[in-house]
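User: Teach me something about this protein's shape.
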Amino acid sequence: MADATSSILTALLSSSNIKNIGKESGASTADVKKVLTSAIPSLLQGASAQASGSSTAAGFLQALTAHAADSPGKIDLSDGAKILSHLLGSKTASTTNAVAKESGVDKAKVGSILAAAAPLLLSVLGQQTNASSSNSSAVAALLGSVVSSNMGGLLSGLLGAGTSSQSGATVKPGSAKPGSNGKADLAGAAVSLLGSLLK
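Assistant: First, the predicted structure itself:
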């Protein structure tokens, strides 16, 4: 699934998407990059949980299909806030706080950036997973693979540096703590590697 993971990250982190997120949230490009590097692992974990949940899978697949046709330049912050609440659930506040502390970006601005990024994430996932022609199980399997084993190793490969020792780790939304030195901290690995990618 490395190719799919690469496609998802490359599409989500495109310069045009980062610019659009900054425009809609009123944030600088630098702040958008800082926030996304901290938040992407939790957002993808939340998407995986939605895709695999017995009560959420069907609705999530419909959302991916609907957002796959979105215009990248049109971002609905209200819709994004609702998407965030689905992806992060009860961890929304703690994740926002953790990202703000780790990125050094104001908490309110972090919330706006995440709300702007959420619809783009669903659009990218819908396109990359071919949601309209896939079933819930296939999408769940893909996203589960992305967050559980491939992200760290793939990012190391993309950057030509680092190790893949953390590629088998998982992180739950809101569970990553800034400054954590745990070897199994996938979020920390992704933050470091994505930070290099976005510079």
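Now, about its shape. The chain has a mean pLDDT of 77. The first helix runs from residue 2 to 12. If you'd like, I can walk through any region in more detail.
User: That's plenty for now, thanks!
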